[in-house]
Amino acid sequence: MYHLEGTDVLNEKYYRKTASVCPECLERIDAVVQEEDGKVFMVKNCPEHGDFKDIISSNAKYYKWTHFQKKDKNGNILWQFEKDGESNPADCASDDDRGCPYNCGLCSEHISTCALALIDLTNRCNFNCNFCYAN
Q1: Whether 111 contacts 130, CB under 8 Å
Q2: Residue 98 zone, left/alpha/beta (φ > 0; ψ -120 to 50; rest)
Q3: Contact 1, 19 (CB under 8 A)
Q4: Of the candidates 77, 85, 90, which has an alpha carbon nearest to the alpha carbon of residue 112?
Q5: How far is 8 from 51, CA to CA, in rounded Å?
Q6: pTM
């Protein structure tokens, strides 16, 4: 991902270029992450199927706060929280030779972050609660 450098991202409406896939044909296409009407969208165009706009966050202010850094007037970083993630281990899911996204599974070309962390607070858990993710 290509984050804006040298600008105060918290005041920008355009955040970065990235890669995506067409939801119709699954071909790799370029995309941009940008703000519109206080929300954050991924905007992309497939030459064959046209334009697509997917919402990433319904709150642009919160999205910017959790994804970018803030600098003081001297250029010192006050805080930074990049959520680009870590590379996934290679785990090809099929023999399809067309490449990403057809045969990836978890592929080292993709990055991810922890979406849900579970911490055991007790040894008395029997993993039987129907609402719990721990089982």
Answers
A1: no
A2: alpha
A3: no
A4: 85
A5: 28
A6: 0.56
